[in-house]
Description:
The chain is α+β, with helices and mostly antiparallel strands and 464 residues long. The radius of gyration is 20 Å and the shape is globular. Helix 3 (88-103) packs antiparallel against helix 4 (109-124) and helix 4 packs parallel to helix 6 (175-186). The strands form nine sheets. It has a three-stranded antiparallel sheet with strand order 5-8-9. 40% of the residues lie in helices and 11% in strands. The protein has a single domain (6-40, 59-458), classed as Glycoside hydrolase 144 (GH144) (Glycosyltransferase). 56% of the residues are buried.
Amino acid sequence: MIFLPRATMLRRILSLSVSIFLAGGMLLGTTACQTVKKDPAPHYVMTQDDEALLEEISSAAFEYFIDYAHPETGLVADKISMADICSVAAQGFGFAVVPVAVERGWITHEEGEEKVLQALRTLHNSNGRRFGLYAHFLDMNTGHASMDAYEVGISTIDSALMIAGALVAGEYFGGEVRDIANEIYAEMNWSAFQNPNRGGQIHMLWEPEDKNNFEGPGRFTPPVWDWYSDETLLIVILGTSAPNEEYRLPQSAWSNWNRPVGNDGNREFVYTWPGTLFTYTFANLFLDFSTLGEDPNGINWWDNTRKAVLSNRDWCRAHAREWKTFGRDRWGITAAGGPAYTYVVPGHQPRGAEGNDPGNGVLAPYGVGMSVPWEPRDTIAALRHMRHLVVGDTPLWQDVEGGGYGLWDSFSMDQEWVGKDIFAIANGPMIMGIENYRSGLIWNLIVKNEHLRDGLTRSGFQVP
């Protein structure tokens, strides 16, 4: 079986979803119901051992963002096994976790500010831009569009994750960091990515005819963000909040994508097409929807994500007899590195895709790590279990003193395999989820941005 890289796989999945969904006779932008009943908020009092565990995991994970940041450009490598290429999504998570590192005393304020400034200056001078957004992959050494990556084009979601992280860092450090972050944000023309033939839905990718020239002619590829995922949600929020009114998405961007509601037998929630965990968390890691309240369509995305997390937990536990990997403290299936440098995107019902996909029993610890705010008791128990887990003869944990970054990316008990790689888009979300539960730092920072505050208010959110 061939596994495609994450962005390519999801684009093909989402493109397929369009024809299937239309064939079923449902209208784009509809949902089975307008509201989802709330789950009780999780109540859990952490012990000192819990605090020590979360500190150990987070600080070890952050070491990646030190060791795999370029000394001159400041850009963060996509992963250990692709250390010469920066994913701009990875860079966004890299921006967001620097304030955590400063607040926790892992690096100094001056070191953190310089790390962020270095990367922002590189991004501002990059040739890998069109309509103000960024190429999915940049060359670590130059900051320009990478010609060696599997995809050469302007990616809306990767640009969204990058600027979201930059805005977090901008509000933390202020000064030049805030100025450059806001300037880049103001240059982003989200409206240029709307497809008029699809009700203004947002294209996923723009490709240049000549991959060496992003200023020349090119085309938007067919796939659009037509289905709920936290990626769609983040793009809509950033687009409707754009500083430049000419580049801003209209409020109709909130209602032109599918929000189907399903039931896993215990709870109802709006589900994504692949049903994999990260598609329920990425926007929520930046924005605290428990305080922002309902979106213009009456959905509280905090509650929705909590239900998706619980559903993921229950599904993995229910299938523990079929897959050795899964168990009471081994759950959180999400996109991850697989054997032989493949990339798996497991998911379960309810989801848009047919059936369930256990990903051949591959599990990534960041799945529960980024989910701590929505189910602290069980996620912390799972992290503690994985911290001491040995798969075959290989420990899942590597000490920083031994050159490790804490938890390896992924593992499979069924295949007795440990994925000895580290992804920035895994370590970053894990650090963010843990820190948001401990202090709310990232959530509190991003809503200080004046443009986001104005945009969220226009969209009817209750901005604190």
